[in-house]
Structure formats: C-alpha cells, structure tokens
C-alpha cells in the first residue's frame, strides 16, 4: 500500500522561560545532585531517553531529566548554570536537533560520554512533518539532521535499536556494571519486540488506515504498521483552525472513513475539538509520550503505548 501523507509544517511554539533541571520520578533527587553521586550519573534530555536510561541502568544509575514533567520538550531552555552542571555528570543522553538548547549545552560540555540517540538508529523525512522543529531553530540545526523526523521512540523497533546502543555505551563508560547493563538491555529489547508484535497484530485488520493528529509525531509508527498519519499541526494550538483546513479535513475524513481526531496531553486540545465539532468527528488522546503527567493514560512508556494502541484500534475500526 502506498502510504499517503498530507502534512502541514509544525508551527513555532512560544519558548518558555528558563526552567531548572527536572527530575525523573523515583530515579533522581534534585538538580543540585545532577553529578558527583556515588552512582553512574546520567543527564537525559527528555522522558523517552530518561526512561531508557533507567530501564538499562537500574540501581547503578542516577538520572536527571532536563525536561520537567508537563513541559513541551521542544520549548526547553536551560541556563548557563545548568550547562555547567552537565560537567559534573558521567554521561549525557540526548536526541540531536530536537532540543537546540540541549545541543548547545552538550557542545560546550566536556563530558566524556555523549550519547546521541540519532546515531543509534536511522532517521527519515516524513513529508513536512518536522519542518516546524527544524525551521524554528534553523540557526542551530545540524545540516545532516535538518528536516528529519525525530520521533523515533514511537516506533518500538527503532526505540529498541536506540536501547541497544545506549546499553553498549553504558557498558563502555561504566565497565564495573557492564554485565547488569547488558542483561537489562536485553530484557528491555525483548519487551519492545513484544510491543511491536502487539501493534502489528492489533493494527493489521482495520476498516481504515488513516488517522488524524494535531501533532505530526507519528510518522514512524504509521510507516511501521501500514497506516497514514494526517497531521493538522501548523496551527497555533490556542487559535481557531482555518475554514479551508477544516473543509479539507472534512472531505478527507469522509473519503477515508476517519472517525476520530487525536490530540495530545502536553498541549491544548482546543484545535482538535474545534475541528472535530466542525467536521462531526470524535476526539481521543494519542500520546507522543514526550513526558508523563497526571493526564497521561499510564505511568510509563509501555503503559501509554498500550493506551495508544487501544485508541488506534478503536478509531481505525480494528477487527
């Protein structure tokens, strides 16, 4: 099947004021302790990478998540003091070009172990899906990565490849605990492979293959499971959608048997609900898992991905 994508570039979002280093629940204390602990100190740029680090590192690691729960990761700004705190850590795990402030801080840092998740798997362009991320930070963008979709963690197969690379990096950087890192990585990859199988089986027989999202984050997921993502990003989440876009969505939804517009947890649902009302569609959550909050349908990556699968099966009319 030829997977069609009709995507609008993501709009630039207003940057938030500088925030302190966030912490990952149950595996980090506070930002002052970002380094110099008696464990292998890892700074992770946002939740999907902090989750990998915790699953792989277990009790041997102390993790600091640069992005606070509930903060949109693309908006992250960090201070000079926080950049200096990176120097105190043993490793930094980040995804190049997703958060320019982190890229700059890592470039200035002398941390020996710098783990770029984009180097551990393959990235692709998905129409204009990530145009907003690249365009709004054009001065920072790495030429080779500009325009490539960064949302690799929403494809369990690519996420497993990143996990394997992170595990090897931990083994090399902290050889005293290499055996445990290897064991934990293998267990995590097994769980991700099983998740991939559940998605593949669950989305094989559906009435439609098209789904609509407000955030163009699901290109890899759509490609992996033979689906088509229709992204309406490019509109300010707080503004009314254009009459022309609503009309086009209404025509597309009717032609492709779409029943649902998905919104996410970290931004306003106003756009999705406005379009849904105008085009007589339902709304539901499809979470890009850029952070876990009280609004998330699950306590961790796996639980939220299972919720996403359930929502997709309902919206697509899975049999």
Verbal overview:
This protein has helices at 47-57, 80-86, 100-108, 131-136, 156-173, 178-202, 219-224, 243-256, 270-278, 301-316, and strands spanning 40-44, 61-65, 91-94, 113-116, 210-213, 228-231, 260-263, 282-285. With 319 residues, the chain is an alpha/beta fold. The strands form two sheets. Strands 2-1-3-4 form a four-stranded parallel β-sheet, sandwiched between helices. The longest helix has 25 residues, at 178-202. The two termini are 19 Å apart. The model is unreliable at 1-33, 128-140 and 234-239 (pLDDT under 50).
Relevant terms:
319 residues; alpha/beta; 4-stranded parallel sheet; 10 helices; 38% helix; globular; disordered N terminus
Task: Supply Rg.
Answer: 19 Å
- The topology string of helices and strands comes to EHEHEHEHHHEHEHEHEH
Instruction: Count the E strands.
Output: 8
Strand content: 5-15%
Count of alpha/pi helices: 10
Mean pLDDT: 82
Structural class: alpha/beta
User: Could you give the order of strands across the largest sheet?
Assistant: 2-1-3-4
Helix fraction bin = 25-40%
Give a brief rundown of this model.
By secondary structure, the chain is an alpha/beta fold. It has helices spanning 47-57, 80-86, 100-108, 131-136, 156-173, 178-202, 219-224, 243-256, 270-278, 301-316, and strands spanning 40-44, 61-65, 91-94, 113-116, 210-213, 228-231, 260-263, 282-285. The radius of gyration is 19 Å and the shape is globular.
